[in-house]
Structures are given as structure tokens and as C-alpha cells.
């Protein structure tokens, strides 16, 4: 079993299951659901940050890298989670947020107190650059009353770390090894392609300054040092880099096995095809032609370059895909299963985001008071400042907020969806119909189980090459996988209408391996049909 035939399930711990009644999910809640996860067939669970944090950015502002925030439980609870997961053949992947640290971390506090050793852990300059924070506003803030400024590419409470400083690198390598010694084999590295910054940071108005700090060449050197000093010593390690605004060429270098950097990479280009003018906080239908072109380009080039894609539609930073890409009011189940097939049969490692396996959708929040995400709250103010009415601004937040995917897991149709006996930290979504009790025997969950099992059992899916197909077809995304003489043609209809097609002659005598419908009309795909032909 390698990362090529594994499926990774992402858990947002705050929202998975609360066992204490404080309205926040916890480690014992995850432990209580390991049998459910084992039934689904997943191989690894990725946990978003569970470390001590002021929670300004829901745990991505870390104040202690090697402890468990009491809101999630104790280190003993974590050790129990590792043991219980292992009993079920499930490994754990932790989120390593190594580009920045909370301003509540002792390193920043000591720097602020005047300790030059720790001041060199950060980017502190006399003059700020013109860079823009990814959460809006300047990427610089006053460093105490020194008259200098410190860099924060994200929230003002998330200070960027200076990876040029070998003392910083050593501290961070020690963090990864601390969790390896706890039995952790998986690591997701948060915005790790931002760590290669220059010593002296200078202004660059291009794309809000991104070229000055994204995918810089030193990033590869640092990843090779990190690999050698930590997870590279573990033959079972699975590592994934979250790559912000990256390129295919860099992702091949980040994930090509001989480079000894990472196992695979997340890129987000396919989740920006519903951005007007490349801007997230806009309202725009998705561009299907651009979506399939991106899948084909990334699929073929990563295959040719021996790179490895993390395949996903959902995560904690994205609205749920069913809302973005599917006529979900009429075709929720078919749309959910079609989306699943479009990545689980492709080349890469699929990620299932909690609730995706039961077809969860965005909540119907009715006012800004329902939203808590710092990025969304900042964006709402920016939309008002740029002339949007409150109604227009709210409509954009409703479709784009990260809170959409962070609502509590929907276990049943009781109050709070069976997530908590207390008041949930974030309101629940529409769990009356969409919940595990209703859906676990239903089409979506069972289809995910089938896809996950196929990846384990057939090397054509885990190892096969990727080749684009039906590129000119207006509503069809299709590709061919090939391995040791066997071929799989996967066709997905991204529309709510039947679509005619001509089956490639080489597949005329094929068998149907996967179909999210119970029937097949020759040379016609039904609305949101996903079908795979094997020869
Ligand atoms: O996200 C990186 C990132 O760029 C996010 O801003 C994300 O792309 C954006 O919100 C999409 O609109 C990582 C984590 O996944 C995210 O939760 C953190 O807020 C961020 O880094 C800072 O650590």
C-alpha cells in the first residue's frame, strides 16, 4: 500500500463530533467514528490543526507546535487516536503550518521583547513592501513600537517565518520529528511553496506581490532538507504540499520521486474557474471548458513528468463542490457521484472531505451574523468598501465563504445533526435529509465505497497513465487510463441534460466497470452520468 492506491479523508476536527457538549468537535469524537471511516474504506485521515491556537484563523495560527489544544482534548487522547486508527488500518496525517506562526507563539513574543535571536525568526523591515495579505489589506504590520514592520501574508496574527535562518529550519524539522515519534506517518504542509522568500523583501505590484514569494527556487532546497531531516526516514510517510498559486512545472519538481521533496501536491487552479477576472469574491458561473482543459493539462503533464497530483473537489477552504458545479436542487445525488468518479478514477491520490461521502451541500445562512471566518468577514467589508450594497456583498459571501464547508458533520436528523449536545461553534446545515443515518446505505456513500475499493484493487487506476479524451465535447469531461495493456475510458457528463457521444471504437466490446446509473443507453450520457468502460 503506497500513497498511489490510498484514499485520504479530511476531517475538520472542530466540526466532526463533539463529545463534551462544548459545541466544538474533539479527538474523542473522531475516535468514536473510526469504525464509520473503516467501513468507508479510507486509508488515512488528515486532521486540520489541533494545536494550541488563539483560533483567529481556526488553528492555522499556532502558538505551540508540539501540544494539543485543550479544546480538542489531551495528548493522551491523541495517542489513543493513533492506536485505535492503526487497529483499523488507518494512518493519521497532521497539518504542518510551517510558513507562519501565531503572534502569541513564544518565538514572536521574545522577538517583540527585543531578543535579536528570535527577531531573526521573522521578516522585520524598516519599510514595508506593497504586498497585499491574502486576507485583505497590507501584508505588513507595525512591529511593536520599533518603527519597523513584520510580514504576515495571511492574518495580522500570523507572522511569516524566515526559513533562511537555519535555527528556524531546525526548530521546524524538530516539530515534524516530534509528531513522527508519536506514530504519525502523514503530513500536509500548509502553503509550503511560500517559504522560499529572499532575505530582503522588495515591492512588486504584480499580482499583489505574489511573484516575490511564491514558488521561489529556494523552496525546493528547503523541502529536500526537510525531507532528509524528518519524514524521508520513514518508508511509510505520505506528504502533500499545499501549493498556493503554483505551476505544473514546479509541482512536477515538488513531487517527482527522485527529487526527494514531497509525495504529492495540492493545486487550486480547477477551483478558480468560477472566479470572475480571477477574483474569488465575485459571482460567476463556472467555466466548464476551462475546467476540463486544466484537468487535461495537469493530468497529462504530471503523468509525463512523473509528478503526483492530490485529487480533490472539497476542503475546509472551499464552498462545497456540489453547490458550485451541479444543478444540485434537481440532481444532488447524481451530481455528487459524477464528481466523485471524475477524480477517483483519475491519476493521483483522491481526498474525501468530511461529508462529501454523503453528498453534503452548503448551508443556507441568512445573515452575516452566521459567518465567523476571518477571510469572509474581511471580504464582506472590502466588498462594501468597493461599492457593493449589503445585499450584493452578502450574496457573494453566501456562495464563496469558507464557512460553507466548515459546518458540523451531519450524523443524523436530530438537533445539531447529532454533532453536539451543546450549541455548535458554527450553525449546522441542512441535516434533516442529508445525514449519515439516511445516506450510509444510499447511492452516494455506496458509490464512494466502490471507487475507494477499486483504487486499492486495480493498478490500472492507481498506477495507470492519463490521456485526455473527447476534448471537443461541450459537456463531457473524459480521459483514458492505461496500464499493462488494459485501458479504461472514463466519461462524465457535467450537464443536467442528456448528451450524445460516439463511443471510441476500441471500447465497443468493453465491459462497464463503473456507472452511477443502473442503466446505460448506448452513445448517450444521462444528466451527470459517470461511466467507465474497460478493455
Ligand atoms: O490556505 C492557503 C490559502 O491560500 C487560503 O487562503 C485559501 O487558498 C483561500 O482561503 C481560498 O479562498 C491555507 C489553509 O488551508 C487555510 O485554512 C489558512 O487560512 C491559510 O493557509 C493560512 O494558514
TrEMBL record:
One Pfam family linked to the record: Alpha-amylase
EC number, as in UniProt: 3.2.1.93
GO MF term list: alpha,alpha-phosphotrehalase activity; alpha-amylase activity
GO biological process: trehalose catabolic process
Entry-linked InterPro entries: GH (IPR017853), GH13_cat_dom (IPR006047), Glyco_hydro_b (IPR013780), O16G_dom_2 (IPR045857), Trehalose_TreC (IPR012769)
Keywords, comma-separated and alphabetical: Glycosidase, Hydrolase
Location of the Glycosyl hydrolase family 13 catalytic domain: 10-406
A GO term from the CC aspect: cytoplasm
Keyword flag Acetylation: no
Taxonomy, superkingdom: Bacteria
Keyword NAD found: no
Similarity field: Belongs to the glycosyl hydrolase 13 family.
Cited NCBIfam families: PRK10933.1 (NF008183), trehalose_treC (TIGR02403)
The protein's name in its UniProt record: Alpha,alpha-phosphotrehalase
Species this chain originates from: Pseudolactococcus reticulitermitis
